[in-house]
Amino acid sequence: MTEKTAMTFGTRRCVGALLPAVLLAACAIGPPYKAPETALPTGFRSQITASDAVSFADLPWWSVFQDARLQGLINDALANNQDLKVAVARIEEARALVGVAASQGKPQVGYETAVGGEKALTVQQGGSAGTVVYGALSSLLNVAWEVDVWGRIRKETEAAKANVLAQEDVRRGVILTLVSDLAADYFRLIELDRELSIAEESARVYKSTLDLFTLRSDAGRDSKLPVQRAQAVYDSSTADIEDIKRRIAEQENAISTLAGAYPRDIERGAPLTEQTVPETPLGTTTALLQRRPDILEAEQSMIGANAEVGAALANFFPKLGLSTFAGIQGVDVNGTLNGFGIWNFVLNAVGPIYSGGRLEELYHQRQAYWDEAVAKYRQKVLVAFQETSNALAQQQTLAPQRLALESQVSALRKSSDLAMARYRAGRASYFEVLEAEQQLFPAEDALAQTQRDQLVAVVNLYKALGGGWNTQVTDGADPVPALVEPQTKNMNGE
To answer: What residues pair up with 327 in beta bridges, in sequence order?
Structure first.
């Protein structure tokens, strides 16, 4: 039998011994993922009922927030917001880790080359000294492959893939939060504009009242007391104007940061009094579990935690592998090169006997992490229903509250006009005038804040229902810049 034939026969025997292990690789150790049971309420406060209308949360954000200036700000934020860029980068990191985990189950090919020389002193026959020059050359190509019999590598890859999907949901959550926060901040900004307008109007009225009281006092028709009281109220309204201006600047700075820009003036669209509260047709409560990014992320975390339990369990079993190398070695002595080929083929198994409890504790840690992931998932479901119920309660109560405040403002404005007319006719005191004016303007502020709260309630409901994360457009126009989309890759990171 020649050397080549013997090598081939030996290789076939090794491969034959390896086949049963390869066939076993189809059966991975570890529990299959099963979503934990989560009891959903059949009814709860402000429950969402079935509707024939399209779900409000399925609408893209540009169909909900119609203000052109607000749409422009959101587009800027989606293109430039740094938190969103962080989320996109983390998706790419997670995709790369999928490839790292999967690479363990693929052949690992390497090489090794060494060249060296030496001149040494030798003692020759007869006792004379001499020198010998040695040269050495070696070149090897090595291959190693771990056979994933127990599914450890597959479980680690599964966990890495779940992390990719979780990061995708994190990104959708960042988009949802970014759009919602920017819309809410914008509505607060235009509400502050309305407060500034009310404050400036009140200052003009208080100044007019102060001038009237001053004329009557100078004419000897009244005392100095009304003048001083009117002066104090006027000064207070002037201070309020400066306070509101500061709050407007801070709000503009906050919006600029969300949009990924340095502090700047923010252009407004329609004023608060001309804003239309969007209609909010609703879907069903069960859609929350399939729509909200934070719940979807939590479920992917559970999938990853379950896979890590299987990977920790597989660590108790031996790792089976195949390794081989082939190459040449040569020795040169005084100009004479002697070379020969070498090869090696090894099927090995490496497993733990005693690890001091490390593997057991690692397995317990992964089990505890699974329990943690389940608890976080259930908590997110509870919070989702809480936020949805809160947003619905806001919508149900703010509309009648606004109507009541509009009626109050109308009555107080008439009361203020009557008090001034009575004062001019000498039928009322200055106190009646100041009291009417001091009741009117805070009521107008309360009305403006309620109008703002109605708009913010729409934002809160949109966010609570998980809307806004779907950036696919149904009408063919996509205002979302492509920059916010991660690069298209498969789950292997290719």
So the answer is: 140, 342
